[in-house]
Design a protein that fits this description.
The protein is of the alpha/beta class. The chain has one domain: Nucleotidyltransferase, domain 5, CATH 3.30.420. 54% of the residues lie in helices and 16% in strands. It has a 5-stranded mixed beta sheet. Strand 1 and strand 2 form a beta hairpin. Helix 1 (37-55) packs parallel to helix 2 and helix 5 (141-157) crosses helix 6 (159-173). The chain is globular.
Length: 174
Amino acid sequence: MTILALDVATSTGWAFGGPGDAPQHGVFSIPPTGEDLGRFGVTFIQWLSGKCRELRPREIVFEAPILPAKTALVTTRKLHGLALLVECVANLEAIPVTEIGNSEWRRHFLGAYYPPKPSRDELKRAVIAACRGMGWNPRGDDDADALGLLYVVNCLRNRDQAATDAVNRMGAAT
């Protein structure tokens, strides 16, 4: 089962693949639109619809939006709006969609390497390092987060693949 994983934001990280696949991944950056939320949303819808038609995922998973305490209203509207737009595009394309909290997938992905009382930057660096340890080369934290999310969801949906991969990772670590 192929999954499209998204770390939605102004720079949206994406990763695509099935269990055991070498995932495709990248980043889509929405050009600055200021307070023009309509243009912002349409740009994202056009990109995501095209990506779904190109890749034909069986499921879309995306990281739930989180916001720092002091976030501008327009930024809040954009980030929460992107979550809604993912669900809208998935509905239009008839693709099941799941929202997952960032701490949930990160704990699974980082395991024992999850930093104690981590800062945002420490988590981002840990995810990038874990991706590189898997043989993936993310361009930055956006697609690294999408790769980590994809990996975790593939393991949760495919327990046999998760067990095989865990054994392979243990062998590589020794």
